[in-house]
Amino acid sequence: MAVSLPSSSPLPASLPSNLLTRSRLLSHALQLKRLLASSPAGRTRSFSLRSSSPRVGAFAADSSSAVGSELSTELDAVSRFSEIVPDTVVFDDFERFPPTAATVSSSLLLGICSLPDTKFGSAIETALADSECYEQDDPNDRLSCFCDKALVNVGTDLARLVPGRVSTEVDARLAYDAHGIVRKVHRLLQLYYELEVPSERLLFKIPSTWQGIEAAKLLESEGIQTHLTFVYSFPQAAAAAQAGASVIQIFVGRIRDWSRNHTGDPELDAICRKGEDPGLELVAKAYNYIHKYGHKSKLMVAAIRNKQDIFSLLGVDYMIVPLKILQSLKESITYPDEKYSFVRKLSPSSAMTYNFSQEELVNWDEASFSSAMGPASKELLAAGLEGYANQTKRVEELFGKIWPPPNV
Question: Which of 80, 156, 262, 390 could form a disulfide with 195 if both were Cys (CB 3.0 to 4.6 A apart)?
């Protein structure tokens, strides 16, 4: 957004030149913040999770490129290198950071059900009134049908609101059943087709077990875009890339948290001995592997804990950023001599110089994958699956209590 800065009051000519320059910059910065706060366009910024290459503007060619000398916010600066996706639910902070990509999940369904006046309530009511579901005799089949319909109804509403893709969670209880995952995705996709949502607007969020990766490989071969989540190790990231997953999601902060409280994971211990952050290093390694060996996958970073995580990963395809950090970036003005140097850390050209061991360049199969999974990835994956499964159970229990809705 271009903003014209009004001329400020003249400063005393007796000020030293360096102080004069700094004072003018500060005056302009304060005026810019007031303009951003009062302008409707300044209150929102659009971020999109599209299937195109990440937006890096004029900085794509050189990993040493930094932002120019113009006055801007930190949010403007980092958005030049990576696509920023607000970590928000659809009914929270919609004006400040309107989502342009979305995920529909059991957690989101629970949130919608807890808010009586949300615009998405009718999507769930319609699902619970669906004749295909309530005609099923088996209660478990009926509840599963309700959940599928509710996910797709809400996902359809989101697809009408956001320009990017909508990722739909696949039941985590199927994480170790490749055929079950494929059947579930086919079922969800058919429901989306019935509501006229095209497949190019959709991703399907699948846990990165070996069976989940195998299911993603099959689905991608059919032209169905997959989003592999719960990636906590290089074997998971490399196997997901070899499977052709459209999006691979790594949780930086969770890996760091585990390594601070545990030892005994060879992959993480080796990184920590070098004085490096294991979460950041995994992202860099996965990014370099994807780009050096020509895989199509895009890399998404989640569980970002602070602004330094963002600055350390500039150039990664997508970052899911918490609202507090986004607000801080938006309110922070950058100067030409800013203490932070906004330099692209990850780029396809720098990936070419990254060296991998022969053990890391294997064609992953179930045996090698299982043996390479360390304690951290096993524990974090298990915890993620348990959390997702419990949320799905809570949705089913809730639907079981409120079904049938009025007038059915």
Answer: 156
Q: Does the pLDDT at position 223 exceed 70?
A: yes
For residue 339, indicate whether it is catalytic: no
- Chain segment 202-211, per-residue pLDDT in tens: 999 999 999 9
* pLDDT tens per residue, range 251-283: 999 999 999 999 999 999 999 999 999 999 999
**Two structure tokens written together for 89:** 């639910």
| Separation between Cα atoms, residue 206 and residue 191, nearest integer Å | 18
Choose among 190, 178, 208, 173: nearest CA to 297: 208
Does position 10 have pLDDT exceeding 50, yes or no? no
Measured in whole angstroms, the distance separating CA 319 from the mean position of its chain's CA atoms is 6
pLDDT at residue 52, rounded to an integer = 35
State the pLDDT confidence band at 306, using cuts at 50, 70 and 90.
very high
Report the alpha-carbon angle 139-144-147, nearest 5: 125
**Considering 149, 205, 330, 345, which one is annotated as catalytic?**
205
This model's pTM is above 0.85? no
Angle at 218 between CA 284 and CA 145, to 5 degrees: 105
